[in-house]
Amino acid sequence: MFWFAAVFLEWLQYECCRRRCKQSFYENITATPTRSYDVTSSDYNYDLWKRGLNILQSDSSCSVRKYLGNLLNARLFLLFFQLVVEFQYLRTQAVEPLATFLDFITYEYMIENVMLLLKGTLSGRDINELIAQCHPLGMFKESTMRSIPTFESSPRGYQDLYQTVLVDTPVGPYFSLFLQESAGRGEVSNVLEEVEIEIIKSSLIKYWIEDFANYVDSLGGATAEIMGDLLKVRADTNAINITLNSFGTPLNEPAMRASDRKRLYPALGHLYPAGTSMLGDVSDEDELGRVLDLFPQYSSVWNIHAAGGSDGKSIDDAFYERDVMQLELAFEGQMHYGAFYAYVKLKEQEIRNLVWISECILQQQKEEIHKFVPVFSFNAPWRAGSKKQGR
Amino acid sequence: MNVGKLVAVIGDEDTVTGFLLAGIGHRTADSCNFLTVKQDTKPEVVESTLKSFTQRDDIGIILINQHVANNMRHFLKDYHQTIPTILEIPSKEHPYDPEQDFIMQRVNMFIGGGG
Amino acid sequence: MSEVPPTRMNQQVFKGKKKAAETGHGLLKKKADALKVKFMGYAKAIAETKSGMASDSSSAFFSLTQAEYAAGNFKQKVSEGSMTARVRVGAGIDNVAGVKLPVFTYYETGAATDNASLGLVGGGKKIQLVRTKYTALLQNLIKLASLQTSFVTLDEAMKITNRRVNALENVTIPKIQRVLDYIERELDELEREDFTRLKLVQSKKNAEIEENQKIKDAAAAEMFAMGITVQEGNDADITAAYDAGDDADVVF
């Protein structure tokens, strides 16, 4: 049943092209702020937006800013809505093995949602409010979601919560893996209560990546190759980030490094196993830099960080840039499922960019407004050579 | 054990999140020292929270976004306690306007008129 | 004021009172001036800090935006779960011209950071930046809060002091003054009464003397008519005229 996926993919890619071709049209509307925008159409080229925003900023009266802010919010909402609807449509039409593949994509958001619900439960928040905050792609059975906060905040309650609810969710297996590994620490309740939510989440994400990679591997072909690589990079990014961000937290204490931090590194990726075992021992940025020097594909990212963000780029931006490049390539490829993953991730990046732009306008940060990682931009560093052809 | 007073905050999500990250958050089983004011938060809720904060003796300072304070003028006008102090702060979306700050109004009265 | 008996003693008492009131007035006025100087200082400091606050806070807000870009939506996680304040304010007291001003000081309780590993898989550094930015903003705000409470307290203290100064100036001192005036007036009045009384007594005496003289003159004239010479020399001593020893025997 690959044909369906292929057709859909073609449609997505065609859409994307069509949007890019409308460049001149966008140039016109961004130049005249008073004309009504076509908020429903999606534009991948942010350079245009930047130009339009500059015009608006030269006339940065409050009403214009507000208007533009509202407009961007409307676009943001629509973009998000579009992502969710398109994805869900895709999911309902999909047959195996694509269906499972798409489910795998949602697990990431599901983990996020479960963590949110768990934490919200601890502070006794209203369940409706919590559900409203959940990522729509990560929704699971509403009855299950509603039952999470009904458990008491007692050891017994946590036990029940785990045994009756969490196990039932698609991400249940990751929970049991996590709990098994933490079994040395005693009861479920202790683990859930004492371990920081963020660390639980990182562990679950790690299991998810490993599981996903296994599944992708079993599919074979181009999917295994391209998607496998995407996941490997994802795993490495996580490992590097976890190491870097653990500095200055209890996680960096010598005892914790081996027992806790190392456990968060996914067991795959270009860094695995030699790199991750080295990462397990680093205690500060210099050491981390020395380890990454051994891996050419990451040393460039690291150098951006080590340069201290002189051109305003942080390591996160560097990773995003890398991801976007890889995802774009994956998206434009044919006959493999990685494109769907890339589609979701690129959309995410686009939403992130839009949030960034609208926040910049709102907060009048004119100098900062360009500092995002554009998606399908002709000016992207890796596409600079093909710029002329694109136009 | 409780030496020193708490800093309470009433404001939009960014304000509250930021100050929580700075470490002022204090939540126990039955009380908490911050309130996130969203679009759909009712003014009555804000007012009753503000009132309850002013009546707690473990709070020393109440930070409140100016746009929130603007809806609470009737309360602030008649607020004469020294402690807790109510401090109006800017919010992300609303630039700070000294004209509306009840303390600044008095300050300006003295600087402008008395100086 | 009428209940004060207008005596010399009360006059002394009230003179003392007036002196005390005037000294007090002078001192309070000095205090009010000192407070006013401080007050203006605070007002200026508040105005400055508040305007600085705007840029501080916008950079703090923006750091949060940056962190959100890097770490995804983490905001809702921050406000979940139970937490213990890591930052509190200590309340000290400053003393300006006898007015106690509350002073807040920033201090960390040493409690563990909540959500220390937020942004572990990305953006952790940016979130760290948010923490520092907001902590700096918070420290400024705490300073501002001190200024503001001091401002309000001083304002109140100044009002009270000024009220006292005005009361002394416009009520108490004039009142004492009026009592003093009253006492003086009364005392003068008494003096004048005494004087009049003496005058009256004297004039009565003089009249009596004149009367006597008239009687004497009449008698003398009568005697003269009867051929008796009355010795004029004894005019001053009337009784002497009747002194049997001196007089010649008169036989009726």
Explain what this protein looks like in three dimensions.
- The complex is a heterotrimer of chains A (391), B (115) and C (252).
- Chain A is mostly helical.
- Among the domains of chain A are: 99-216, V-type ATP synthase subunit C fold; 220-336, no CATH class.
- Chain A has helices spanning 2-21, 23-31, 46-58, 62-93, 98-122, 127-133, 142-147, 155-165, 172-181, 188-194, 197-219, 221-246, 254-264, 274-279, 285-293, 296-306, 315-332, 338-362, 387-390.
- Chain A starts with a helix and ends with a helix.
- Residues 20-48 and 385-391 of chain A have low confidence and may be disordered.
- Chain B has a four-stranded parallel sheet with strand order 2-1-3-4, sandwiched between helices.
- In chain B, helix 1 links the parallel strand 1 (6-11) and strand 2.
- The radius of gyration of chain B is 15 Å and the shape is globular.
- With 252 residues, chain C is mainly α.
- Chain C has a domain at 8-163: Helix Hairpins (Orthogonal Bundle).
- Chain C is built from four helices and two strands.
- Chain C has helices at 8-71, 75-78, 124-225, 238-241; strands at 87-96, 99-108.
- Chain C has a two-stranded antiparallel sheet.
- The longest helix of chain C has 102 residues, at 124-225.
- Chain C is rod-shaped and about 155 Å long.
- The A-C interface holds A 115-116, 119-120, 122-123, 125, 133, 196-199, 202, 205, 237-238, 241-242, 244-246, 248-251, 264, 314-317, 319, 352, 355-356, 359-360, 363-365, 368, 372 and C 58, 61-62, 65-66, 68-72, 76-77, 79-82, 112-113, 115-126, 128.
- Chain B: Belongs to the V-ATPase F subunit family.
- Chain B: One of its GO terms (biological process) is proton transmembrane transport.
- Chain B: InterPro entries: ATPase_V1-cplx_f_g_su, ATPase_V1-cplx_fsu_euk, ATPase_V1_fsu_sf.
- Chain B: Keywords: Hydrogen ion transport, Ion transport, Transport.
- Chain B: Pfam families: ATP-synt_F.
